[in-house]
Amino acid sequence: MSRTKVGVLISGRGSNLKALLEAARDPAYPAEIAVVVSNRADAGGLAVAAEYGVEPLVVDHRPFGPDREAHERAMHAALVERGVEFVALAGYMRVLTPWFVGAWSGRMLNVHPSLLPAFPGLDTHRRALDAGVKIHGCTVHLVSEGVDEGPILGQAAVPVLPGDGVESLAARVLEAEHQLYPACLAALTGQASGSEATPAALFSY
Ligand code: GRF
What we know:
Bound molecules: 5-O-phosphono-beta-D-ribofuranosylamine
């Protein structure tokens, strides 16, 4: 079976990246992680990639100044050179230009720490606590031009428990992200490679 080549974009610690790498260790998993690209040289996820024998690549955005598209063209070239077919955003902290989103349309996914369309953007756990929601969670979706928009591939729900603060709630959601993201990537790339289609994941705890 030929596996779909995936490039993962990160900016930080890379715990979701680790979940994807762990899933992809199984030869039956439909995707292989071909390269991990970070816009920051100090991203913890670069070491995680190396641990799993995957190439860590830094494409620093700073030399490109305000020209975001030029930075993305450099990342794009690196991805294409390595035969990447799908892009997984895993804590990539820059808003992508319409050009990059268009280039990977239908082939780029993101994990977001809320049940979209609730709480797009940053600081989702604080906002969920302030709103008093009883159910929170995470979403994996295809990336479209609007930030944290795009067709939903899967969601995982977690309870908000009495006494929760940002940290405890974030930890519960993160655990769910680590289950959901590999499941959704498998569903998407499994379909792309023509193998048995897995239904889009819907988890609830
Ligand atoms: C996660 O909460 C993810 O949902 C968000 O950024 C965070 C990345 O964490 N997009 P990590 O680097 O995967 O640990």
